[in-house]
Design goal:
This protein is α+β, with helices and mostly antiparallel strands. The protein has helices at residues 10-13, 29-41, 58-72, 86-92, 171-176, 221-233, and strands spanning 76-82, 98-103, 107-108, 113-114, 122-132, 149-160, 183-186, 199-204, 207-213, 244-246, 250-255, 260-265, 271-276. Helix 2 crosses helix 3.
Length: 277
């Protein structure tokens, strides 16, 4: 069966699966953050530096991510799950999801006209989000999730997976560069009970690009939201009221290679449109 148009994977852009072991130690974490920051503010692809960082593991990569977020000096507005979709994990050769930080300057409104040239390698992802209603500073159980959630909503992420050396990119580079967080669009809030039954269809200029199901994110939206909360709280963040949690992509990754009107139809759950020019 032919796949829908533009239905590529990050692996086709960064062709090597993320290795689990890195060798070299010629750069410290602060220097890594400096390069990440310079690339971000300069509108350049993220630098691939993991082969030069000493003592590298997930914790070191998240420390670099936190350093980058601090240097950017933008207000935190939420957090994103990445690689929560089993297909995306398989494409990367890993078996764990990762997280990133959403910032105020990444937020776009529904109906926005967005310049494709603002991104090194834009990817459009259809997602489901949770808006937090009370502070979360300790890890929680899925049974306790609803105490902290005000509503859920459709969301679109515009991720930027651009990097300066795709063949050498690792999961640590991905994490340190804030897990490709670059833009997001929020839809209208909705009731929570049936969120796991939501399906979404993404179109560009009326052409179907992909279809996705809510349960593609860790098999359950509530489990995915709980995982994300515990992940970021474990890093020392407090999740404040009004923050958004994006639980991860539903459907295929859509490389945004050309302009057009993008429309994500979630049925009764809502609809989001924006245009790339």
């Amino acid at each position: 069966m032919d796949r829908p148009a533009e239905q590529d994977t990050i692996a086709e852009v960064c062709p090597l699966a993320f290795p689990r072991a890195i060798k070299s130690n010629r750069m410290n974490n602060d220097e890594w953050v400096d390069l990440l920051y310079e690339a971000r503010v300069g509108g350049k692809p993220a630098p691939v530096c993991s082969s030069r960082v000493s003592g590298l593991d997930h914790a070191v990569a998240y420390t670099a991510q936190a350093g980058l977020v601090e240097r950017l000096e933008a207000s935190i507005t939420g957090f994103k799950g990445a690689l929560t979709n089993k297909a995306a994990q398989a494409a990367m050769g890993i078996d764990v999801p990762v997280s990133g930080v959403l910032l105020e300057d990444m937020r776009l409104t529904a109906g926005s006209i967005v310049e494709l040239g603002n991104y090194s390698h834009a990817v459009v992802e259809t997602e489901i989000g949770f808006c937090i209603g009370k502070p979360v500073s300790e890890q929680i159980s899925t049974d306790g999730l609803m105490e902290y959630v005000e509503y859920c909503l459709p969301m679109i992420e515009i991720a930027d997976i651009g990097c300066d050396d795709p063949a050498a990119m690792t999961i640590y580079d991905f994490i340190a560069a804030n897990s490709a967080a670059a833009g997001y669009i929020v839809g209208q809030g909705s009731e929570l009970e049936a969120v796991n039954e939501v399906t979404v269809s993404l179109f560009r200029d009326g052409e179907l690009l992909h279809e996705g199901r809510a349960k593609e994110a860790l098999g359950d939206q509530f489990a995915a939201a709980t995982w994300l909360i515990n992940q970021v709280v474990g890093q020392g963040y407090t999740i404040e009221p009004g923050f958004f949690l994006m639980t991860g992509s539903l459907g295929a990754l859509q490389m945004a290679t050309k302009p057009g009107l993008y429309s994500a139809d979630y049925g009764a759950f809502g609809k989001i449109e924006f245009e790339f020019i």
